[in-house]
Design a protein that fits this description.
Layout (H helix, E strand, L loop, with lengths): L2 E7 L4 E7 L1 H11 L3 H18 L7 E8 L6 E6 L3 E6 L16 H5 L2 E8 L6 E6 L6 H11 L4 E9 L5 E11 L5 H11 L5 H6 L4 H9 L4 E8 L1 E2 L5 H9 L3 H10 L3 E4 L6 E4 L1 H9 L3
Parallel strand pairs: 5-11
Antiparallel strand pairs: 1-2, 1-10, 2-9, 3-4, 3-6, 4-5, 6-7, 8-9, 12-13
The chain binds zinc ion (ZN).
The site of zinc ion (ZN) has 6 residues, from loops.
C-alpha cells in the first residue's frame, strides 16, 4: 500500500514528508496509457502533490500545474488531505530517447515555463503561488518554487523508475523543509547531506518504507514521526457529475446531441474513466428542462 509519513526533525526546526507512490503511479499509467517519459513526469507530479497534501488539514486540497513548453504539454496533479491523488498529462504518448541508461529525459519533455501551486484551504480565496521552471525535472522546480515563492529552503526528491516493459517498478519522494528561525548549521548540514543521497527510486526499489526513506533523507538529524497516512489514486468524477455537466449544456445543445448521435460519451480528463449516456438517459435530462 502507498503511504505518506509526516515528521518533525531537529527539535521542531525541520518538517519532513516522505512517501511511496508506486501503486498509484502505476494506476495512473494504466488509466492514461502513458509512454515511459510521460509516466515518469506524471508520476513525479503525482508524488509531489501527495507530499504537498501532507501539509494540509482535513477538507483541504492542493493543485500542482506544470505548464512547460516541451512536448508533454501541461501536467496537472492534485491531492487531498485524505490522501486522494489524481492527475493527467496533456500528451500522454510522449517518449524521448534516454539521456543515459535508465535515465528518462523528463526535463526536455516538460521544457521551460511556469509551476503553479494552488492550495484550497477552505477559505474564501485559494492561496496561489508560482515560479519559473528551472529544469523541467519537477523536483528541482518545486525546490526552486519553495525558495522563491514561499521563502522556505527545501530539499525535494521525486523519482519514478519505469521498467523496460513500461510498468512502474518504484515511485516515491521526500520533502524536507527548514522552518524560519532554524540555526545556520542545520541548514548547512541538510544542504551538504542532500548532495550525498542516492536517488529516491533506489531506496523505494530496495523496499524502504517512507519512515526509512526519511531516516536516509535526514541523516544525523533526529526526528519524530507525527503520522502515517495511506495514499491512493482517486478521482471525484461520477455519473452524477457527468449528468450535471451535460445538463449545463442547455436544452438546445442537449437536444441536438440526442438527435444527431443518440447518446453522449464523456471521458474524465483526470482519471480516464469513460461515461456513456444512451438515448433514454439523455431524454431524462432533457425532460428536466420542461
Ligand atoms: Zn475522473
Amino acid at each position: 500500500m502507498d503511504t505518506l509519513v509526516r515528521a518533525l526533525g531537529a527539535e521542531g526546526s525541520v518538517r519532513a514528508f516522505a512517501c511511496v507512490t508506486t501503486e498509484l503511479v502505476e494506476e495512473a499509467r494504466v488509466r492514461h496509457g502513458t509512454a515511459p517519459t510521460a509516466t515518469a513526469a506524471l508520476g513525479r507530479a503525482l508524488t509531489a502533490s501527495g507530499l504537498l497534501a501532507g501539509t494540509l488539514k482535513r477538507g483541504q486540497k492542493v493543485t500542482l500545474r506544470i505548464l512547460g513548453d516541451g512536448p508533454l504539454g501541461g501536467i496537472l496533479a492534485d491531492g487531498t488531505a485524505e490522501g486522494a491523488v489524481r492527475g493527467y498529462v496533456q500528451n500522454p504518448h510522449v517518449h524521448l530517447p534516454l539521456r543515459r541508461p535508465r535515465k528518462l529525459d523528463v526535463g526536455t519533455a516538460v521544457g521551460r515555463g511556469v509551476l503553479h501551486v494552488t492550495r484550497d484551504l477552505g477559505l474564501r480565496y485559494p492561496y496561489h503561488g508560482a515560479a519559473p521552471l528551472v529544469s523541467g525535472e519537477i523536483g528541482e522546480d518545486l525546490a526552486y518554487y519553495f525558495a522563491q515563492s514561499e521563502q522556505i529552503p527545501s530539499v525535494v526528491a521525486l523519482g519514478v523508475l519505469v521498467e523496460a516493459q513500461g510498468h512502474v517498478a518504484a515511485a516515491g519522494g521526500f520533502l524536507v523543509q527548514v522552518l524560519p528561525g532554524t540555526r545556520e548549521e542545520i541548514l548547512a548540514y541538510l544542504d551538504a547531506h542532500s548532495r550525498t543521497l542516492p536517488p529516491v527510486t533506489a531506496l523505494v526499489w530496495r523496499g524502504l518504507r517512507p519512515v526509512e526513506i526519511l531516516q536516509v533523507a535526514l541523516g544525523d538529524l533526529p526526528f519524530r514521526v507525527l503520522e502515517e497516512r495511506p495514499l491512493r489514486f482517486q478521482c471525484t468524477c461520477s455519473v452524477k457529475r457527468v449528468r450535471e455537466v451535460l445538463t449545463s449544456l442547455g436544452p438546445r445543445e442537449l437536444g441536438a446531441l440526442l438527435r444527431e448521435q443518440g447518446r453522449a460519451e464523456v471521458r474524465c480528463r483526470f482519471c480516464g474513466e469513460h461515461y456513456l449516456l444512451e438515448g433514454p438517459a439523455l431524454h431524462d435530462l432533457l425532460r428536466g428542462f420542461v
